[in-house]
Each structure stands twice: as structure tokens, then as C-alpha cells.
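Quiz preparation item.
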């Protein structure tokens, strides 16, 4: 019986439809891949080289590895992942090594997307393992809080919540999962979910983390909250940074000033970059006194903020020159 589901289109991939009894063998017959009616992804060049025959063991491995890395949510992804696990352990080892490398380095957003796809492949291989959706959720959370990707904050953080909930379903007693789910729920403005997650998490947390949670829970119960959900501020900051790049300084400054006016948000999420960019806006709009205040505020939050120190020095130097010329 043929599969009724169509394979997912992926750039650089053509699909080979095997006969019902097709078997692909490799490694001196030690590996046998029973294809049944599963459409096999092949790289374009491998597909062109078929010439009416069936694909080789290596060609099938290359195709499956490519399609899963490109789109682990593709049709038949779970079947492809099992073939990869059973027949191509070297690809599994390579992905594990890549994940470890990315965990040890401060990588950019493109690498976070790659890490998420690798983790999704491992989750397909071990669907009952709570660790993989947890790591996927944490990586989406990392992405959603990156200053360079704040324009995707809402999407990334809702995806983080989705995977953390999947992880919690697999391991409902894990305090770490509850902690992170409560954290992302707070950012999304889902305060009832925070109370639920952290009420049950508290007894299992280390003293430092428990104290932090207790303080935030107290604020939630007292109604001491950001004026809008944190994720809305993150998106607004991302939009204002884009306006700054477009030299729309007044628009960017208006948004950033409104963000800084929320003392609860600023206390819980101190971002020196907000004050720094607002200082640049003021400087370029001919308001050096305001710019100086914002540069100093950025330095107070991060004394090692070299860009803010340079901007402040350049600003004060210009003031000295202007004063001398007068």
C-alpha cells in the first residue's frame, strides 16, 4: 500500500519511490534498510546518477541527513530519523559533536537554529526522552532573548513554551523544567502559569534560585508587574533598533524612552544597550545633555561597556571643543 502522505519539498532534494520489497544494504551487508514504500530523499546529483537503478547506501544516508537537518519537521521525519540511527551512526556522532561545540561557545542566531534542528532529530529518535524538548525549549528561549533577534522574540518564546510543556508532560516531576517554564511564562505575561509552575518548583530549588523565585512570586501576587508583558517590550526594543539603523532617531528614541519609563521591567531586565542606543539617538538629534545621561546609565549597568564609554568620551570632547570655540 502506497503512502498517501506527500514528502516535504526541500531545496536540493529529489525523492526516490522504492518498490514495496526494496532493501538498501551497506557496510558489507551489515546494514539492511527495508524501504517498504517510504519515499527516500536523495541529493539532486545522487538522484540524477540513478540511471534507472536503486540508490546506494551512501546516497540514502546523504539524502536523509540533508533533509532532516534542513527540516526535521518534514513528512516521514520519524522514519528517516530511525533509519539514520540504525544505519548511519557516524551522522549521529557528528550531530552530537556539533551540539556540544555550540553549547561551549557563544554562537550567533544561525547556529542556534542549527542546534534546534539537531535536537529535534534526536527527539525523533527518542520521543520519550524529556531532555530533548527541554533543550529545544531553552534554545528557543536563548534565541528569543538575543538582542540581534528581538524582532522574532514573540515567535521564539512561544515556541520555547511549547517545547517546555512537551518536556514537562514527559517528566512532570522535574523541578528544572518547571523553573524554566515558569520563567518563559512570566516573559509571555502568563502569570497564572508562573504561579502554578513555581509553587510546585519551590521545595526542590537551590537556596539562591528559591529566593529569586520567592521575590518574583511576591511581586506577582502584589500586582507589581511590568505594564505590558516582557515579550512586548522585547519586540518594541527590536523595532526601535531597526528604526535607529534606518536613521529614524526620533521614532526609535520615543519607543526606548517608553521602555525605560517602566521601572519594574528595567529592574528585572536591565539592558544597558537600551540606554546606549537611546543616547546615540539623542546625540544625533542634537541633545547632548540627554545623550550624556543615557550613556552614563548604560555604563552604570555595565561598567565594561566600551562602546558607551567611547560614545561618552566623544560627546564630552565635542562639548569641550564647542566651549573653546565660543
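Solution:
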Amino acid at each position: 500500500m502506497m503512502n498517501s502522505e506527500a514528502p516535504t519539498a526541500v531545496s536540493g532534494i529529489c525523492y526516490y519511490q522504492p518498490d514495496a520489497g526494496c532493501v538498501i544494504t551497506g557496510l558489507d551487508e551489515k546494514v539492511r534498510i527495508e524501504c517498504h514504500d517510504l519515499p527516500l530523499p536523495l541529493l539532486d546529483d545522487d538522484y540524477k546518477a540513478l540511471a534507472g537503478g536503486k540508490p546506494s547506501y551512501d546516497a540514502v544516508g546523504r539524502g536523509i541527513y540533508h533533509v532532516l537537518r534542513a527540516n526535521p519537521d518534514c513528512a516521514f521525519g520519524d522514519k528517516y530519523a530511525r533509519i539514520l540511527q540504525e544505519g548511519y551512526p557516524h551522522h549521529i556522532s557528528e550531530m552530537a559533536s556539533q551540539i556540544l561545540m555550540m553549547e561551549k561557545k557563544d554562537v550567533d542566531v544561525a547556529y542556534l537554529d542549527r542546534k534546534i534542528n539537531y535536537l529535534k532529530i534526536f527527539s525523533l529518535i527518542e520521543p520519550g526522552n524529556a531532555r530533548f524538548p527541554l533543550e529545544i525549549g531553552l534554545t528557543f528561549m536563548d534565541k528569543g532573548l538575543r538582542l540581534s533577534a528581538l524582532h522574532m522574540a514573540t515567535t521564539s518564546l512561544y515556541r520555547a513554551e511549547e517545547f517546555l510543556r512537551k518536556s514537562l508532560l514527559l517528566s512532570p516531576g522535574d523541578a528544572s523544567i518547571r523553573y524554566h517554564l515558569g520563567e518563559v511564562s512570566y516573559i509571555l505575561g502568563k502569570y497564572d502559569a508562573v504561579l502554578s509552575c513555581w509553587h510546585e518548583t519551590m521545595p526542590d530549588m537551590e537556596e539562591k534560585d528559591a529566593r529569586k523565585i520567592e521575590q518574583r512570586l511576591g511581586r506577582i501576587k502584589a500586582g507589581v508587574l511590568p505594564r505590558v508583558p516582557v515579550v512586548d517590550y522585547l519586540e518594541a526594543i527590536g523595532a526601535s533598533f531597526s528604526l535607529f539603523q534606518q536613521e529614524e532617531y526620533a521614532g526609535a528614541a520615543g519607543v526606548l524612552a517608553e521602555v525605560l519609563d517602566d521601572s519594574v521591567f528595567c529592574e528585572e531586565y536591565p539592558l544597558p544597550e537600551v540606554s546606549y542606543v537611546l543616547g546615540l539617538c539623542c546625540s544625533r538629534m542634537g541633545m547632548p545633555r540627554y545623550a550624556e545621561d543615557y550613556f552614563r546609565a548604560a555604563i552604570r549597568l555595565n561598567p565594561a561597556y566600551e562602546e558607551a564609554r567611547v560614545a561618552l568620551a566623544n560627546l564630552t570632547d565635542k562639548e569641550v571643543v564647542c566651549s573653546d570655540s565660543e
